Amino acid sequence: MECGLLLRLHFAAALLHFSSFAFSATGQGIGVNYGIKGNNLPSPATVISLYKSKNITKLRLYDPTPGPLNALRNSGIGVILGSLNQDLQKFAGDPSYAAAWVHANVVPYADTVDFKYIDIGNELVPSDSATSILPAMRNVAAAVHAAGLSIPVTTAVSTLVLGTSYPPSQGAFSSEASQVMGPIVSFLASTSTPLLINIYPFFAYSGDSADVRLDYSLFTANDVVVHDGDLGYSNLFDSMVDSVYSALERVGGSQVPLVVSETGWPSAGGMNGATVDNARIYNNNLIKHVNSKVGTPKHPGEELEVYMFAMFNENLKPAGTERNFGMFYPDMTEVYPVNF
């Protein structure tokens, strides 16, 4: 959720019409985003020690900052390595720039850091630069291959790519997004690489709480809330994920898996529903849901790889909700209990 907050709020309003929580991070499904937009955050070595102490085995890093990358050496933590959105045009237009980036930011760490994916572009569809994503991905993938490495290259999108999201079986990319998503999906299918998707039930609830039930958003509904043919949905997270799966199918991407690269709930910031209790309930129930390996109604029994947003509250983000998605304060005390 590094960009596109206002756009996502606009999308959220139209998205739908209609104790104690255990966490075992040893499951393969859960990672946590590590953002560094703060001037009071712990040192990278201390942060990685915190990940390890909580048995968190996966991490998303938004750009190739040397401090975190060095701290990740020999940690055993799987890493999604991001790139700066402002570098997209250089990646797309200059293969030598992509090669230099890989040699500077990937090759020196590849022997000791477990890179799961390289993310080129975060939430850039739709945008004026969206058409540069695929050529940028191709050039970075070629540079990775030329360096003798096997690291999948992908991109991260938000649910703004969807023109239709309800019911989930009718999920489809918008006409604007489909012009770029179709070729991107074909590339991902050809390389057996997942699409990264940022999923936020919070914004759907906060933007339209009259129609979107809180219990449906927090995984606490005891009944089926959305009926979609033979499928029933009792939580909004699954509905949103399956709507993206449906959109993939419509552009020939039925074999392209999804990785949820961001999801979370803010504990403060002034927006409707942004409370400590709601954040605690959402994140703990998300972990329980993912680690149960039940999958989604459209993909039952398939464990989903999910990265929670985020490790820390970051004080250099815009004031308000954006600063309050962290599960830890910068002093590493808990914002609320997550039973790692």
UniProtKB/TrEMBL annotation:
Keyword Nucleus on entry: no
Leader peptide range in chain numbering: 1-27
Keywords from the UniProt entry: Glycosidase, Hydrolase, Signal
PROSITE patterns: GLYCOSYL_HYDROL_F17 (PS00587)
Superkingdom classification of source: Eukaryota
Residue spans crossing the bilayer: none
Family as reported in the entry's similarity comment: Belongs to the glycosyl hydrolase 17 family.
Name of the protein this chain belongs to: Glucan endo-1,3-beta-D-glucosidase
Natural source organism: Platanthera guangdongensis
Lineage: Eukaryota, Viridiplantae, Streptophyta, Embryophyta, Tracheophyta
